[in-house]
Write a structure and sequence with these properties.
Layout: H1 17-45, H2 48-59, E1 64-67, H3 71-85, E2 90-92, H4 95-98, E3 111-116, H5 125-134, E4 137-142, H6 148-152, E5 155-158, H7 174-194, H8 198-204, H9 208-213, H10 217-220, E6 229-230, H11 236-246, E7 250-255, E8 258-264, H12 265-271, H13 282-285, E9 287-288, E10 292-293, H14 299-307, E11 315-318, E12 329-332, H15 333-338
Parallel strand pairs: 1-2, 1-3, 3-4, 4-5, 6-7, 10-11
Antiparallel strand pairs: 7-8, 8-9, 11-12
């Protein structure tokens, strides 16, 4: 039986808080500096093989199938997700599951993007063999070439010699950061080549705050009979009736198939004391050439247009890009706020 501890035995104490903080900060800065340097090295080391990989992805009639195991598998999942969200159909297949039936997820015309830091991952052998048997493109993202995977692939994206940021040099740290960044570079280069724009991005990101910011004007505008419109030769009394009926605080003045101007409730307040105001023609009161927005513009752009000048406005008519056609709709600030756009 162990002897009870003496009451006066010295008690181990932790290092002073400031010393521990300094150690942690030093370690964190060392890791970030090493990984930042690794990304610079990767940028310098890009070769024509990167361009070839981009061309094969662009020409791929099927999907990009990313695969890898361990930390490389996690990176492969992220690369597949980034590609899919930026216009390149892609998904991840676990190499062990592929050996037990998930090879059936691959089809003619697919391209396999295989990740392995060592290039010797045995779990990849079946999916690699499948690509060779059925003539699928195989792009290898490896940390070492030559290697079995690199020697087998059609295109090899090899990382430069990198130092792992892990203090014992074993845990995948720098290498996985470099692989992730190289996957981002592939996705971004392919996105640019496709001419993929904000509207395309919005279609693939309808949810969450990002989806709200990418709402299009046409998605929230009021069209048809909801628009308050009036001819320029009508009296202001008719304009007030139209404004009251439609409840947008304005009326668009249209003639000869064009939006000529706008009358807002602010115009009414400023003009009501004029003699015979109600009998005046709308065209003499309107503000000509009002600001407008295109239906395919982002709703966040509409908010910017409404608020960029003082005093701000609360509504915009929606017209074709040349800005002089019959309005297709009207968007109100309340519509933007309701859609989560601000």
């Amino acid at each position: 039986m162990a002897a009870p501890a003496r009451r006066d035995a010295p008690v181990a104490t932790a290092a002073p808080a400031m010393d521990a903080q300094a150690v942690h900060l030093r370690a964190g800065r060392r890791v970030l500096s090493l990984e930042a340097a690794a990304l610079e090295a990767c940028a310098e080391a890009l070769t024509a093989d990167f361009a070839e990989a981009c061309q094969r992805i662009l020409a791929c009639p099927g999907r990009v199938v990313a695969t890898g195991i361990g930390k490389s598998g996690h990176v492969a999942r992220k690369i597949a997700a980034t590609l899919a969200s930026t216009g390149t159909p892609a998904f991840y297949v676990h190499p062990s599951e592929a050996s037990h039936g998930d090879l059936g997820m691959l089809g003619a015309g697919d391209l396999v993007l295989a990740l392995s830091n060592s290039g010797e991952t045995p779990e990849l052998s079946d999916i690699v063999t499948f690509t060779r048997r059925f003539g699928l493109d195989l792009v290898a993202l490896v940390g070492r070439a030559p290697s079995t995977l690199a020697d087998t692939a059609d295109v090899v994206l090899a990382l430069p010699e990198l130092e792992e940021a892990c203090p014992i040099g074993l845990a995948p740290t720098t290498s996985t950061t470099a692989m992730m960044a190289l996957g981002d570079a592939l996705a971004a280069a392919v996105l640019e080549a496709r001419g993929f724009g904000p509207d395309d991005f919005a279609l693939r990101h309808p949810g969450g705050k990002l989806g709200q910011r990418l709402v299009l004007v046409r998605d929230i505008m009021h069209g048809g009979d909801e628009m308050p419109l009036i001819a320029p030769d009508r009296p202001m009394s008719a304009a007030i009736v139209e404004m009251t009926r439609k409840r947008f605080g304005c009326v668009g003045v249209v003639g000869a198939g064009r939006l000529l101007g706008i009358v807002t409730d602010g115009d009414l307040r400023r003009q009501l004391d004029r003699p015979a105001f109600l009998e005046m023609s709308v065209g003499t009161v309107m503000t000509p050439a009002p600001r407008t927005i295109a239906p395919d513009a982002l709703a966040v752009e509409a908010v910017s247009l409404m608020t960029e000048r003082q005093p701000p406005v609360t509504q915009l008519f929606v017209v074709a890009k040349d800005g002089d056609l019959m309005p297709e709709g009207l968007v109100h600030m309340h519509d933007c706020l309701k859609a989560g756009v601000a």
